[in-house]
Amino acid sequence: MQEATKITNRKATAVSGAAVSILAFSGDISSASKESILAAYHSVNGATPKILLDFTGIDYINSSGIAIIIQMLLEASKSSAGTIAIFGLSPHFQKVFTMVGIHKYAKLYTGEKEALAEA
Amino acid sequence: MKNGRSVEVRLPSELGFEKVAMSTAASMATLMGFSANRIEDLKTAVAEACINAIEHGNQLDDSLSVAVVLSTTADELEVKVIDDGSGISASPAAPDIDRKILGEEDPRGMGMFLIQALVDEAEWHKGPPGKSFVRLVIRLDKEKP
Prior knowledge:
heterodimer, A: 119 residues, alpha/beta, 5 strands, B: Heat Shock Protein 90
């Protein structure tokens, strides 16, 4: 009964000129999303020095979904391939991500423009 | 809405149905005049309580259901989430993101922490089957930042 996460992958160029991969999520992020989200991450990891996660289209994320993002950050911390940043979270989920400490390992930006300005 | 109103929802023990409880809690909170921010806090807390009840309390058993009882007073909304498990008595520990990133702590296990952080009161009661519950309260006069 859990809704699947839709994921699209696109490339962008940061203000610095660096190539950036953007994984855009929509729908729900829950325990059912683990395989698809980690597969999407593995497909772009190493392709660009920075990966941005776009949460603009996300309606619902629960603690199991947040754990998947932490799993991704754990993998990124062990790899020298690239860093991860996040944008498009609602104010509520910005607060929740900060409560659990994700902001220590992935910068949280309001929107894509702000994220690309610093990438 | 008059004081002392109560609504009960029964959820199948299947993940995803927590969203039915979230919607019901949000509707009750809207009727009571809670702000949009507090309603988002409540929705996340109710979702996490229901997920715990479905996954850990009822062990995803199709033959069991989770009861969600929402009760109002003039300035409080109380939500009880009742399951058939043996309950939880430990206080939720704050997640340690550094240990999680190092792989020393399970990336999961943040639900109880979020519940406690997002509502004004949260308490867990152990009991016989059908009597274990978590009780959440949000108050109209206490807007969390």
